[in-house]
Amino acid sequence: MESFSRSKVSLLAAQRRGAQDAADTMKAPRKSCSSFSLSPAILRWIDRRLPRPAMRRMPLAARVESAARRLAQCVALALVEPGIGQRTRAGLRGPDQRASFPGNINPTCHTGQGMKAAQGIRSTPMTCDSSGGTATGLRDRALRRAPTQNAVACRRAPRRRGPIVVLLAVLFAPSLVPAATVPGCAGAATYTPAYPPTRLPERDQGDVSVILLHGKSGSKFAPQYTNLITDLADHGFNVVIPNMTWWREWDGTQCQGLNYLKALVDAERARGMRVLLIGHSMGGMHSLLYAMHTGHGLEAVIPVAPGHMLPLSTTVVNATQPYVEEARRMVAQGRGDELATFYTYDGGLREMQPTTPNIYLSYHDTNITPDFNFVLPAIKPRWLWIVGDADPNRDFNQRQISKLPDNPQSEFVITSGDHFTALDRVADLLHEWFQTWSQIGAPPSGVSNPPMRLSVEDPFSGSIKAGVRNLRGYLVALNPPTSLSLFVDGVPYGELEHHGPRPDVGNAFPQYPNSDESGFNIVLNYGDNIGPGSHTIQLVAEDSNGGVVEAFVPFTVDSFNTPFVFDDGLVSLSGATITHDSDDTITIQNLLHDGRRYRVRLKWTRQTQNYEAIEITPLQ
Predict the structure, then answer these.
(1) Peptide bond into 158 cis (omega under 30)
(2) Peptide bond into 193 cis (omega under 30)
(3) Which of 142, 229, 253, 431 has the fewest CB atoms inside 10 Å of its own CB, making it the most exposed?
(4) Count of Cβ atoms closer than 10 Å to residue 125 Cβ
(5) Integer Cα distance of 600 and 613 in angstroms
């Protein structure tokens, strides 16, 4: 947005690239795989030699990358212990004795947990029964990875394919193991979201960035965060709102999401920002999870009504146990990467979008997801824990405070509101608390013009629209803009031309090429094409370097019962009265429109330099 004021910024659930389908969850793997210069013929050749029936619902490139990920990890284990591939050479002396592997790795336990010791995660020994199943599972005090098919793949991989394994490990390993990861998640990839994070305001206004994590099955577009985002920016914070792995699509494991969060924190710190982390509900749980041990670059963590803290959240554990068991069975059958339908708990059992057993278990299996009995005492940064007095989780939240380490700068606050309305108080509470131990400073030096500026001038935020009106604004960019997409309430509306004459913009922003030809303008019948009620327009612009900027405009449509009349004779002021309510408002009582009487209020608006209808009420 060009400017960021007190007006609400309503974030909508939108698909930026088009209609939803099952392939959306595979966007990140496709993008990662396509970055390698392998021809389709080579990919198909490799794919034929790595048949995985459970993966056939994935696109080809995603299947190959998934297989390569497992094989690359097999190579890592093989380098530690060459005999890992065959049970007869694993050093087992009996069904209940441990294999003589570094870190007590037992390769015949095919839950994927044996990978952890090779990745440097502290764990207790694990033994196996005679069938190779886990008898005593790992209880890591650090983060645990989701069970995968890694050990199965290693055990079944014929030795004659060794060169292929090495080739794929070399080709794919750089994208699979990020340089900087959250402790305990070094073996997991970093999540690549379908949507980039939204940043508000457009220009840095201080040296503190707040990263806001949404709740379970939500997204950065969820309207309950509108006031919070607006108020944080009004208090001088820069706000970063990402879509996390537990959003509506559930398209990444817990570790992948935490590694992505670390990348966001590192990016803000690299820009000279201090970072605060706010998480709501399941996002609050992950904010605490990220903050344990060193805090990973945070000044403070602000959990808001955190939930899903296993195994403390016994209701979640009990409600999801049947689905956890089903996911475990699928993993044991070698179907851990197959899409399936599961349920989660958020006040009641809710069906999730199709996801994989490995992803599901990383959040719901108490043998995998970190134990919050150990997470909470390990929180290092200062914290501000907030919950509403009408939140069903209030008492549960309050009971957990005693587990946190003592910190004189930390506070537990019960505020007014329920699980969602309490969010409207968070910005003020955070600002008051922040001022007790710090102040917002000037933006870091060296901040230059943003790569793109996208401004929607009409409709403006909070406006009321009726009838046929224009949608207009401008887009300027340092690199040539390639597209400008319009969404209304998440539905793609089309691509906009953005090269209209705007000499005023050219005068205001001469540093941007062709800024005098940067306008866009289309005509919308708000009553007919959009309809009465509250709505949000989203514009998404991209440039030739892959940069993205978004603008969100919440507005309201008020309309006559007949949104468009073709006969002017059907509209009349006969019998109507007109009153002047104030200096800028006019009321027309008993206006006749297509056989019905209405009260219509008009208000002068500076943005459009015209009288706009702000109320259309039927009188009969």
Answers:
(1) no
(2) no
(3) 431
(4) 12
(5) 7
Kindly state the tokens that stand for 59.
């696109």
Q: What is the 3-state secondary structure (H, E, C) of 578-605?
A: EEECCCCEEEEEEEEECCEEEEEEEEEE
pLDDT in tens, 550-560: 888 888 887 66
Q: Is 337 left (phi over 0), alpha (psi -120 to 50) or beta?
A: alpha
The residues, any chain, with a CB within 8 Å of residue 571's CB and separated by 6 or more, are: 565, 591, 592, 593, 594
pLDDT at 470: 84
Q: Residue 181: what are its φ and ψ, rounded to 5°? A: -135, 165
What is the model's pLDDT at position 377?
95
- Reference 267, options 296, 304, 243, 230; nearest CA is 296
29-32 contact pairs (CB < 8 A, 24+): 29/58, 29/59, 29/61, 29/62, 29/65, 29/66, 30/59, 30/61, 30/62, 31/192, 32/65, 32/175, 32/189, 32/192
Helices 254-270 and 357-364 pack at an angle, to 10 degrees, of: 80
The position carrying tokens 């901040």 is 447
Residue 305 confidence (pLDDT) above 60: yes
Q: How is residue 319 annotated by DSSP?
A: H
How many residues appear in the chain?
Answer: 620
Cα–Cα distances (Å) from 483 to 41, 237, 242, 385, 503, in that order, read 32, 30, 22, 42, 21
Q: At a CB cut-off of 8 Å and minimum separation 6, what does 183 contact?
A: 142, 143, 293, 294
d(CA 492, CA 190): 29
Q: pLDDT tens, 401-422?
A: 999 998 889 999 999 999 999 9
DSSP annotation of 16 reads: T
Closest CA to 9 of 607, 552, 557: 552
Contact in structure between 549 and 456 (CB atoms under 8 Å): no
